[in-house]
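Worked problem 6 (solution included).
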Amino acid sequence: MREDAGMLGIGVEPSFAIGQRMLLLETDEGNVLWDMVPLVDAAALEAVRARGEVRAIAISHPHYYSGMVEWSRALSKIQEDEVPILLHEADSEWIMRPDPTIELWSGETKELFGGATLLRLGGHF
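Solution. The predicted structure is:
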């Protein structure tokens, strides 16, 4: 875990897959998990939960889709509130594991809460 620029970064050591990391963005109205690590473990869950309620998971790229449903379910269970997974509709063809918690958004921006805004930016797709 590493804290920088007002966000908490969480990775897996030793790394596996493509060495993903996730970021926790904290706002006064709840938190956003940005991208995902593929492993859900007790230490990471506790670190995330200790900083307040996660109100949304946002994913920037399909490489991060592998653990998103597990993270949503694990957080929903300990918070007793469903944590939606926000994906841009342009990437919907890459969803290999549909789940009711996945919410597709469209357009160039999506306002969340606490001043957080999702932006649709270019990538390598």
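Discussion: The chain has a mean pLDDT of 87.
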